[in-house]
Amino acid sequence: MPIPPGSGLRPRALALLLTLLPGTALAQGAPDTIALDEIAVAGASPPGPAFGVAAPPGSGPSVIEHPVGEVVTGIGRRDVIANRPATSVGQVLVNSPGVTMRQGNGPRDVVVSIRGNNARSTGVIKNMVVLEDGFVVTQPDGASRFDIADPRAYSRIDVFRGPQSPLFGNYATGGALAFRTRTGREIDGYEIGIDAGSFGTLNHYVTVGGASGPSEVSLFASDFRLNGFQDHASADTQTVNLLASYTPSPDNRFTLKVINNTLDADLAARSSLAQYRINPYQRGCASAATAAAGCTTFNLFRNGAFGATVPVTADEGAFGRTDRRTIIAGRWEHDIDADTTWRTQVGFDERNFDQPFYTSSSRGSYPSYNVLSDITHRGEMFGLPVVGYAAFSYSAIDNHIALYNRAPYGGPRLGALTSNQEASQSNLGGRARAEVALSEQWTGVLGVSAENTWLTGRTLTYAYSAAGTTRALAEIDRSFLNVAPELALVYRPDTAWAFRGRLAAGYATPAASALFVTPAGVPGNNTDLRTQTNLGFDLGVDWSPLPDLRLSLTGFYEFFRNEFVTQSPGAGLLSYTFNAPASEHRGIEAGAEWAFSPGWRAVAAYGLNDQVYTRYVEQLSAGSLTARFDRAGRLIPGVPAHQLLARIGYDQPSGPLKGLGAFVEAVYQDGFFLDNANLLRAPGYTIVNANIHYDTDLIGSYAKRLSLYVEMRNILDMTYIASAQPLANSISAVTGLQNGASVLATTTGSIFAGAPRSVIGGMKLAF
Fold first, then answer.
1. Residues in domain TonB-dependent receptor-like beta-barrel (predicted)?
2. Backbone Cα Rg of the chain
3. How many CA atoms lie within 13 A of 746 on its CB side?
4. Fewer Cβ in 10 A, N or C end of the chain?
C-alpha cells in the first residue's frame, strides 16, 4: 500500500529482497469487506500491527495484516457474533462471498470451502491455511479442524480468497483464514454469558481481558454441550484460548498464544440419499432389529476380524470421537528501526484422537511444530514508496496412527488391528513480497514463494482369514519442490473506486495419510499422488458511491493440475484421494453493504462456482471387468453453483429503546452432484433465520453492559442436506456397464441432514 516518500529505505536491503522475486504476477486491491466497521481499503492507509500484538501506535507493520492486491473479506462481530448465538464458525464465515459450508463430524466441526476448494471433504479442512493471531494453526500436513474455534472468542475473521501460496506457502491453493481473538484492551474487564435452546444446546463462556503497563492479556473459556437433533448425536466440547503480550520497550514485543480443546462427541450415521428421503434425522434407530424405515446400518465383523458380519446402528456401534488439540506458540517482534520490523515465532501443535466410528476405528497422535521468521521494511526505491516483506519457514509433523476393525456391541469395542502407520513430513521454504506505490493512483505487488516438502514413512497392513493373518508393507520416501509467483495491480482513481487484478499460483503436496489409502478404500499403497497446483486470474472492482454503501465484484478463473479429489468408494470404507489431471474453476463473487436509513442495514454475499474436469479418465473395476470413462466436461462433485447470504436489519439508534434491534437473513445454497459421472444430485435449500436482540449500558450497576438475544433458525422448518460426501461411481460385475443413479442413491455413508427449526437465546453481562 502507498507510503509517504522519503521514509528512508536502505537500497541494498531492498535490492537483496527483490532478488528473491521473479519477474511477474497480477493484482487485487482493496479488501472486499462485509462489515462496515471492519472495512480497510488496501492502498488507502498504512498497515497496522501484526495479528494479536498489543503494541503502542507506531509499532512495526505487517504486510500479512493488510496485504495490497489480495481479495480479502473482513468479517466483524456485528450481526455475526456479538448479538446472536453463533455456535460454530460456519455461521460466521457464510458472510463472506465465495465461502460455502458443510457439517463435519461433530458440533463445531464444520468444513469450510473457499471458491469450491475443499467442498468434497467431510471432516478435515484442506486446501487452505488457517491462522489465529498470526500463528499458523494448520498442521504441517495441511490439516485444520474447527473444533478448536468458538466464535465468541473472535473480534474479526479475514477470508483470503484465491491461490495464496506466495503469501502463506504450502496448502494455500484455495485461500486462507485469519482469525483474530479479542485483545485485552478490547475486552477491558470481564464478560460472562450463556446460550441455551433447542436440542439441548447449552454454552457457558467467560472472557477476561485487560492491559496494565507493558502487559496485556485476554483469556476466553467455554463449555459447549448439545443433545442433537439426530439420534446418537450428543456432544460436549471445552475450549480455552489465551492471548498475552508483553512490551518491555517500544521496539520489542512478545506474544504468547495457547489454545486447548477437548471434544467428546457421539456421531450419527451418514445415510444414503434414499434413506435421507425416508428418515432424514435418523430417528428410531437405536437397534438394527427394531429400526424404523430409513435407518442406516453398518456391517461389522462378528469376531472383529473376518467372516460373518452383523448390522449395527450408530447407537449399537457407539460411533464417536474423543479428541484433544493443544497449541502453544510464542512470538518476538523487534523494530530494527522506525521502518523495519523483524518477527520470529515458534509453535507446538499436538492433535490426539480416538475415533471409533463406522466400520473402523482410528487412534493416533500428530505432534507438530513450526518456525517462522520474517522481516518487513518500509521505504523507497527509485523514488517510489515500497513495503518489502521476506519470510523463512520450517515445519514438521510426526504421524502415528493405528487403524482397527470395529467389533459389534458393548460400546466402542475394537476389533483386529488393520494397519499401523508411522510417517513424518517436513516443509522448508521462503517467501518474499514487495508492494510498490507506482503513483498516487497505482500500486503494484510482486511476490513469490518456494518450498520443499519431504515425506517418509511406512504402513503395515494386516488381513485376516480362517487360514491366518497376512501382512503387507507400504513405504514412502517422497520429496516435492514447488514455486508460486504472484503479481497484482491496484488502481484507485479516487476514494470511491478501486480496480484490481491479480495473477497468483498455489500448491498443495499430498499428506502421508493420503498416500496409504488405496482407491479400494482400504489401507495400502497410494504413493503415486502428485502435488496439486493451480494458477488463478482475478479481476475485480470495489465501489463506494456513498459513505454508507459499499459494493464489490470479483471474477476469477483458475487452472488446476493434479487436483486432489477425495471420495468414498462405499459404505464403511475409507475415503481415498486421487489426482484429476486437469480441471478449471471459474466464478463470480459479489458483496454489498448498505446502511440506507438511520438504524437500517442490509448485507449480501454471493458466490458463483462453475468447476469442471477438463482432462480426467476414470478407471472402474468390478470382479474381472474393468472400464474407463472420460469425465472431461463433467462438473466436479460436491461444489454448489450458487451460494447467497442476504440479511436486513434494524437497530434503534436513539431514544428509550436504543439498543433494541432485529434482523432477518436467508442462506441459499444450490444443489450439487455427488459423483464424477454427474448421475446423482443433492438438492439445494434456502434457510431463513430471524433474530431479536437488545444491548444496553447499565448505569449505576456493578455490571457495565447487558446483552440479550433470541434467534429462530430455519423458520420454515426446511429439511435439507447439511453435508454430503461425494460417492464413487461403479460398474456392474456382470455387464461392465456403469451403474446408474439408483445404485448411488442407495449407497450409505454420505449424508447428514441439517437442523430443523430451532430456537436459541442467550445473555451476556460485561463487568
1. 303-715
2. 26
3. 5
4. C
Assess if residue 311 is contained within a domain.
yes
- Helix spans in 301-446 (H): 314-317
In Å, what is the CA distance from 441 to each residue of 1, 106, 225, 487, 494? 11, 48, 52, 17, 8
Partners of residue 642 on adjacent β-strands: 608
The domain spanning residue 537 has which CATH number? 2.40.170.20
Let me know the angle formed at the C-alpha of 227 by 225 and 230, rounded to the nearest 5 degrees: 140
- The DSSP letter of residue 92 is H
Domain range for 71:
63-341+348-744
Cell reading at 739: 451403474
Query: Which DSSP helix (H) or strand (E) runs through 11?
Result: helix 11-18
Determine the Cα–Cα distance for residues 276 and 722; give it in Å rounded to an integer: 11
Is the Cα dihedral 711, 271, 124, 399 positive or negative? positive
Using a 10 angstrom Cβ sphere, with 0-12 exposed, 13-18 middle and 19 or more buried, the burial of residue 539 is middle
Give the single-character DSSP code of 727: B
Give strand ranges (E) for 616-684. Answer: 617-622, 625-630, 642-651, 660-669, 672-673, 681-682
The reported pTM is: 0.89
- For cell 470404507, the residue is 573
Place of cell 479488501: 31
Instruction: Cite the beta strand spans of 495-575 per DSSP E.
Output: 497-508, 532-546, 549-567
Question: Would you say 690 and 716 are in contact if contact means Cβ atoms under 8 Å apart?
Answer: no
Residue 512 near residue 399 (C-beta atoms within 8 A): yes
What is the number of alpha carbons within 13 Å of residue 182 lying toward its C-beta? Answer: 27
Separation of alpha carbons 312 and 409, rounded Å: 8
Give me 52's grid cell. 494479536
Distance of CA 8 to the CA centre of its chain: 40
Say yes or no to pLDDT of 44 above 60.
no
Residue 41 lies in a domain: no
Mean pLDDT of 462-489: 93
The CA–CA distances, whole Å, from 371 to 140, 328, 674, 722 equal 11, 12, 39, 37
Residue type at position 690: A
For cell 471387468, what's the residue?
625
Residues 199 and 268: beta-carbon distance below 8 Å: no
- Provide φ and ψ at 17, rounded to 5°: -60, -45
In a domain, 17, yes or no: no
Neighbour-count burial for 467-500, b at 16+ CB within 10 Å, e otherwise: eeeeeeebebebebebebbbbbbbbbeeeebbbb
pLDDT of residue 522: 75
Residue 590 covered by a domain: yes
Query: Greatest CA separation found in the chain?
Result: 83
Averaged pLDDT for residues 718-734? 92
Q: How far is 643 from 573, CA to CA, in rounded Å?
A: 31
Closest by CA to 501, choosing from 95, 104, 24, is 24
Residue 534 near residue 560 (C-beta atoms within 8 A): yes
Dihedral (CA of 32, 38, 43, 49) sign: negative
Residue ranges of E strands in 547-641: 549-567, 576-597, 600-615, 617-622, 625-630
Can you say how many angstroms the Cα of residue 685 is from the centroid of all Cα atoms in its chain?
22
Mean pLDDT estimate for the chain: 88
Dist. CA 12–CA 377, nearest whole Å: 12
Cα–Cα distance for residue pair 422/460, rounded to 1 Å:
9
Q: What is the mean pLDDT of residues 597-626?
A: 92
Residue 308 — pLDDT band, cuts 50, 70, 90? Answer: very high
Q: Is the pLDDT of residue 751 over 50?
A: yes
Query: In angstroms, rounded to a whole number, what is the distance separating the alpha carbons of residues 305 and 464?
Result: 6
Degrees, nearest 5: CA angle 83-84-85: 140
Distance CA 341, CA 333 (A): 7
What is the number of domains present in the chain?
A: 1
**H/E element, 187:** helix 184-187
CA-based nearest residue to 89, from 133, 146, 26: 146
Question: What span, in angstroms and rounded, lies between the C-alpha atoms of 616 and 620?
Answer: 13
CB 514 within 8 A of CB 504: no
CA separation for the pair 423, 681 (Å, rounded): 37
